[in-house]
Amino acid sequence: MELKAKSENRTLTLQLRGELDHHAAKKLVREIDLVVEREVPQQLVLDFSAVSFMDSSGIAVVMRAQRRMQELGGSALVSAVPPQARRVLQTAGIDRWVRIK
Fold first, then answer.
1. How many Å apart are CA 28 and CA 31, to the nearest integer?
2. Which residues, given as ranges, of the chain have pLDDT below 50?
3. Across-strand partners of 46?
4. Considering all CA atoms of the chain, what is the largest pairwise distance in Å, rounded to the nearest integer?
5. Structure pTM?
């Protein structure tokens, strides 16, 4: 799993690339925390357009990012979610807590 960050106007966009499974999720949570602490964004966008596979571990990544942004008084958004990953998120009801675009 690769993470590419772009920050502009207090919006931090993180593009995720690869497979988001248990192994990748643990590392990804740490990486997201570090970037968010460094940038202190008002909005965090998790761009899933290059995620080729996601299991339930991805739910923890999204929820941790949302919780961290709430702590900072900001918000999180998940964008460009491929169909397979969207099914995982919707089945878990994540769209009740995090906006999915």
1. 5
2. none
3. 14, 78
4. 33
5. 0.94
